[in-house]
What does this fold into?
Amino acid sequence: MAAHKIAHATLKGPNVVKEICIGITLGIFAGSMWKMHHWNEQRKTRAFYDMLEKGHISVVAAEE
It folds into this structure.
């Protein structure tokens, strides 16, 4: 009897170097996104206080 040749995916163990590279890449990407969010919030806060200092806005409710 002839053995049939079937293409099977061979399972290998985890590739440590590949896992480390993927982890570093994802970490840098997530850190960059967080930093961009942080800078955006800083810009909003700075703009608010600049407008408050110049008198364009007020935090006191207007009396009717």
Observations:
- DSSP finds one helix and no strands in the chain.
- The radius of gyration is 28 Å.
